[in-house]
Structures are given as structure tokens and as C-alpha cells.
Amino acid sequence: MEVRYFGFEQRQNARTYRFDVLEKGHPTRSFVVTADVTLFHAIGVGIQEGPGLSATKLLADLERDVAGEHQLTDQDLRAYVSARSAAVAKRAEMRKTPRRPPRRRTDFPGQSFGQR
């Protein structure tokens, strides 16, 4: 299944993202995912993330055979923020993990130290 983004339309506080879904052996289907722009600001999600989040929501809905309207909800945005925060925390924790210092080589074949 392939999802293609075709832009959005802004109406008041609602943004509608347009997609075509292509499946091998099936005709192309068009879908719209609606999102309340005020939720993006209230929850702390950049509006530029709307197309990607909407495509993810659409795919999830199609996998669950959800018919009718598709809407990006506050629950979807909160789940995204939670997952993003967890990923940031995990990366920060990985940076904090102490690394073992490199081993010092004690034997140097063919070299003698302290002699000239």
C-alpha cells in the first residue's frame, strides 16, 4: 500500500490533508484526514508535522477497516508527543552511559623504551 500526499486546505481552525492510496490490483482511492489546528498549538506539535501524522493515522485506520471520515484527534497528537519524548529520553540516556576507556597497549613488538 502506498500513500501519496496531495496538499491541504485550511478552513477556519480545521486543516484537511488530501491523500491518494494506491494498492496493487485496486483502483486508486482518495482520502481526507481532518485536523484541528488549535490542537497542534495546545499540545506542542509543529504544524509541519501534520501531513506525516495524518498519513500515519490514515494507514492505521485503513488497516483497522475504519470507514467514513478520518480525523487526527488530540489523543493521536498526545500519543505522538509521548512517543517523541520517550525517544528523546532514551537517546539522552544512551549518551550518559559511561564508556570503557580504551585499553593501553603494554607490549610494542620491535620497540624498546628507555634506551637510545
Walkthrough of the structure:
With 116 residues, the chain is of the alpha+beta class. It has a domain at 2-80. Helix content is 38%, strand content 26%. The chain contains 3 helices and 4 strands, in the order βββααβα. The protein has helices spanning 37-43, 50-63, 74-96; strands spanning 2-11, 14-22, 29-36, 70-72. A 4-stranded mixed β-sheet has the order 1-2-3-4. A hairpin with a 2-residue loop joins β1 (2-11) and β2. The protein is elongated. It starts with a strand and ends in a 20-residue tail after the last helix.
Q: What are the defining features of this structure?
A:
single chain, 116 residues, alpha+beta, four-stranded mixed beta sheet, 4 strands
Please describe the topology of this protein.
Blueprint: E1 2-11, E2 14-22, E3 29-36, H1 37-43, H2 50-63, E4 70-72, H3 74-96
Parallel strand pairs: 3-4
Antiparallel strand pairs: 1-2, 2-3
